[in-house]
Write a structure and sequence with these properties.
There is one protein chain. With 266 residues, this protein is α/β, with parallel strands linked by helices. It has helices at 28-46, 55-62, 67-77, 96-114, 120-131, 145-151, 164-170, 179-188, 202-210, 225-231, 244-248, and strands spanning 12-13, 16-19, 135-139, 160-162, 195-199, 215-219, 235-237, 253-254. It folds into 2 domains: 12-27 and 117-254, Rossmann fold, CATH 3.40.50.1000; 29-114, DNA polymerase, domain 1. Belongs to the HAD-like hydrolase superfamily. CbbY/CbbZ/Gph/YieH family.
Length: 266
């Protein structure tokens, strides 16, 4: 367990959890990775671009970002520039939005055929937080946020959901800007300093530092503990079940370090 930075000492109490969805609550990050791989393996090969697409590309250029930003950044890494186009572009359009919509069609196909089951450890934490009176919100760049919550049977567990669709309606920039997380905290009525950001993506973890949130929890689903800590995670776990005892005992709190990079330890 890697939660030694959480202290049961006088400090800022965490009153709300702001959870990313894909890779944190549900294993849909794997579905996203498969959909992105299907898109870019074909697209890069068709354009004669190298190197071939890999999982490293997903973590470096795509993970946690709004879909069109991921498309643009991955293509730029291969020296390819496309017109942005419009969000309404057809999936066969050779534009940034067209490719993003093509990927989304593949994601929706996999989700419809295979469904999604939440991580048991994440459900255990959600149950414990609810019992402890800790508020919760989902914050995700995905425009499929509500669809995924419904497929996972979690649509009624979160009073606040700020997903890609809602962010666009509110004209909020995506990660690594903290705007969507700050909006979720505002809607819960909890100051950012009393909120914990729970993220598996480097760009998402960076949100916590930029938004001055009280606690930044990194969930290592493959990006690596050191990468999450470098991005600003105070705590890194491999499964959210590791935090259940801290919630149940009222010890989910963070004693701020004296200067950046020095953690409090038990």
């Amino acid at each position: 367990m890697r939660v030694n930075a959480i202290q049961a000492v006088p400090a800022t109490d965490i009153r709300a959890l702001l959870l990313d969805l894909d890779g944190v609550v549900t294993p849909t990050a794997e579905v996203h990775r498969r959909a992105w791989a299907a898109l870019f393996s074909n697209e890069l090969r068709a354009r004669g671009a190298s190197p071939d697409y890999s999982d490293d590309d997903y973590f470096t250029y795509i993970d946690g970002k709004p879909r069109h930003d991921g498309v643009r950044d991955l293509l730029a890494s291969r020296g390819i520039a496309l017109h942005d186009g419009l969000p309404t572009d057809a999936p066969d359009a050779e534009t940034v939005w067209g490719l993003g919509n093509r990927k989304n069609d593949e994601f929706a196909r996999i989700l419809a055929e295979e469904g999604v089951t939440p991580y048991p450890g994440s459900i255990a934490l959600i149950d414990a937080a609810e019992a402890a009176g800790i508020a919760m919100a989902i914050v995700t760049s995905s425009r499929n946020g509500k669809r995924v919550l419904e497929a996972a049977g979690l649509a009624d567990r979160f009073p606040v959901v700020v997903d890609g669709v809602r962010a666009a309606q509110l004209q909020l920039p995506g990660k690594p800007s903290p705007a969507t997380y700050l909006r979720a905290a505002e809607e819960l009525g909890v100051p950012a300093a009393d909120c914990a950001v729970v993220e598996d993506a480097i760009s998402g973890v960076a949100v916590g530092a930029d938004g001055d949130f009280g606690l930044i929890i990194g969930v290592d689903r493959g990006v690596g503990e050191h990468a999450l800590r470098r991005a600003g995670a105070h705590v890194v776990v491999s499964d959210l079940a590791e935090l259940v005892e801290h919630v149940q005992t009222g010890a989910l709190r963070w004693k701020q370090p004296n200067d950046r990079g020095e953690e409090a330890t038990s």
